[in-house]
Structure formats: structure tokens, C-alpha cells
Amino acid sequence: MAIEHGTLVTYEDNLLNADEDLLQCNNYTQAPSMDVLKRAVKEQANAKRLDQDMFIERNMILFSMRESDQTSSIENKENLYKLFI
Known about the structure:
Order of helices and strands: HHHHHH
Low-confidence stretches: none
Number of strands: 0
Number of helices: 6
Structural class: mainly alpha
Helix content: 55-70%
Shape: rod-shaped
Mean pLDDT: 80
Distance between the termini: 36 Å
Oligomer: single chain
Largest sheet: none
């Protein structure tokens, strides 16, 4: 939910939906802090990446696109890909 709606909205929703008796006792286990939410979002985003280095990831995507492109009618598309590498 934090990825789609943002960490602040998720944090506020968690606080609004948390048990009030627990919150009065300073028990915030039902409402993870903003730092915890940000770390979770970052870890989830990193898990979906191909590589930690964005340039290597870009090259991997370009290679995949070049190898899988069977229908393109662009002339000299090999030269086009060389511009990005």
C-alpha cells in the first residue's frame, strides 16, 4: 500500500485504524513509523530491480529489447543502440 499511496498516507491510515487503547499506552506496533515504511518501500523496489547499478540495468534492458525486437522497421537500429552504450 505504501508504494501506491505513499508513505505518509499509509502512516496516517495506520494511525487512524490502530487500536486507540494501545495508542494511549504508547504502543505503536499497529502503526509502523515513517522510517520503517520508507525502508520497506526501498527494499521492495530494490528487490524488483535487475541490478543495483542503474547503468548496468539500462544496458540489460536495451540488450533485451534489441534481442527480442523482430518487427521493428527502423533502419540501422544497431547504430541506434550503440548510442546508448
